[in-house]
Amino acid sequence: MAHHRYRVTKRLPWIRGGRLGPHLDWIGGREVVYEPGETIVLEDREVTAIFHYLEPTSDPSRVVLEGARTRTAAPAKRTMLVDIPTEDLSWMIRGTDEQLRRQGQIQTLVVRTLTRGKEVSLSDLAAAIQETPGAPVPSVLLDYVAKVLRSQPRRPGPKERTRTTWEDLAIQAYYQYELGRARQAYEANSRRPRALADVAKRKTAAAFGISKRTVERVLALGPKASSRLLT
Q1: Sign of the C-alpha dihedral computed for residues 172, 178, 182 and 188 taken in this order
Q2: For the chain, N or C: smaller number of CB within 10 Å?
Q3: How much is the pTM?
């Protein structure tokens, strides 16, 4: 398996060296944290799980990275796994998931789980949203958050809190996503509405089935205050 060097774009906890043990625990190795701008040498098969943390430093690494992105975006094909017994495949998936959890890559773990059509815990969902503050949240994660919130019954009562803290964080993350889309649309066409924040608030309200005023109250809370309530 070939090795190539990549530049890290987001903070990346990693285990250098070691191997996967018989009980799916990681044996040996040294825990390190790569900061944005640092470089890391990876085997081609390791790139798929963390491709959104990387950018290429050479033509060969660019080919590997683009291949990982294409495979992740493409629909799953059963023919690719036809020779792997179901039990062995499930052990492989479990081993990879446990390694990601050990490395603190909860967002990658949650995205992988949702892509397989599985449910995730609310604590993992909240951790995934907070993992990369200021960076775009993957669309599969935002879609799942909106789906969960729409499926929950509304609790009446003006004095009773109707949302959990992780739900507030999800609304804040979705607003930032829509704000970025509105900004891109305006830059591409100056005839688009100039009130970008207002557009993002209305779209967020529609996605979560809440009022624009509620979105504004959640944004006023701020991500730092929400994060403290989760700890």
Answers
A1: positive
A2: C
A3: 0.40
